[in-house]
Amino acid sequence: MYVLTLVSSKKIATRFVIFHPISMSSETAKVPVLLLAKNMALPEEIRQKENAAVPLKKSNYRIRMFFVSLWAAIVTFVVFGISLLTWGTTISGWIYARLLNFLGMRILGIKIKVDGRENLPKVPSVLLVNHQSNFDAFYLGGIFPRHSVVVAKREMLKVPLFGVTLKAVRTIFVDRDDSADAKKGLKKAIDTIKKDKNHIWIFPEGTRSQGKGLGEFKKGAFAMAIASGAPIVPIVSETMERLLDTQKKTLFKGEHRVHILPAIPTEGMKFRDIDKLLAEVTQLFQHELKMFETTKI
Predict the structure, then answer these.
(1) Does the pTM of the predicted model rise above 0.85?
(2) Distance between CA 8 and CA 10 in Å, rounded?
(3) Is residue 128 a contact partner of residue 235, using CB atoms and an 8 Å limit?
(4) Contact present, 126 and 186 (Cβ < 8 Å)
(5) Domain count, the chain
(6) Residue 113 domain-assigned (yes or no)
């Protein structure tokens, strides 16, 4: 009889008893072979264990947050220079998002699992994303489409360097308290989709939820979609606080899930359909977020 010890990537030793056929007694031979594997984990169980949230020490949190902030500063400076050379195109915004995601999430120790990549649009669309924190760009940068224009609050222009970069990549700035400015933003969105053939990336809540759940959707995003006849692509991001909570200063290594839902056509819709469309999309987001809660890993 031999004892074989296997050590997994998680350093958990698993022992299997292997009986040599010559040394087996008649009674031992009657033991069902299936018993040898009864404690073996299924592939899905293994994946869940490997991606389960693992808490990090407070000191580890501070170190990782320092380096992720440093990385964000480096990316901002680099992309600022690129944006000056590529003024008026969307390339800098795409580079910014991809760089933040590429190393930023590795520093934090968080994996992004995206379901529904096949639903990323091939035609100019309005991409709706639930807005949670300043880390949205880190979490979602890996799926930010190449030809995309972001809709942002006008006060973002005041952020040093970053404000200039936003302007360089043709960001649509809106002031929600100024109806005339909102109309200008709507016209720019239509031109962005119809003339420039770019996507619109917008947070329909208009502000960060900061762990308070899904916020109320504003009508602007839906007006843009209907006015341009572009399909809406809902992108639902799992609650970030499960792994990273900047208020409580907690960080867990694990997996963050993002669902890209099938496109919702708006062609032929009128502005009178906004309320119905808004309610439908809100319900989709609420359903997906609830599914995340009920299928925790």
Answers:
(1) no
(2) 5
(3) yes
(4) no
(5) 2
(6) yes
| Residue 45 included in any domain | no
CA–CA dist 174, 152 (Å, integer): 6
Does a structural domain hold residue 136? yes
Same domain assignment for residues 74 and 28: no
Q: Is residue 28 part of a domain?
A: yes
The tokens for 16 are 């299997």
Tens-place pLDDT, residues 82-132: 999 999 999 999 999 999 999 999 999 999 999 999 999 999 999 999 988
Helix (H, G, I), strand (E, B) or coil at 250: strand
Q: Which domain holds residue 283?
A: 53-294
In the chain, beta strands by DSSP E: 2-7, 13-18, 54-55, 110-115, 126-129, 148-153, 172-174, 199-202, 232-237, 244-245, 250-260
Same domain, 129 and 159: yes
The answer to whether residues 14 and 142 belong to one domain is no
Over the stretch 258-287, which tens digit does the pLDDT of each residue have?
Answer: 999 999 999 999 999 999 999 999 999 999
The closest alpha carbon to 239, from 200, 204, 291, 280, belongs to 291
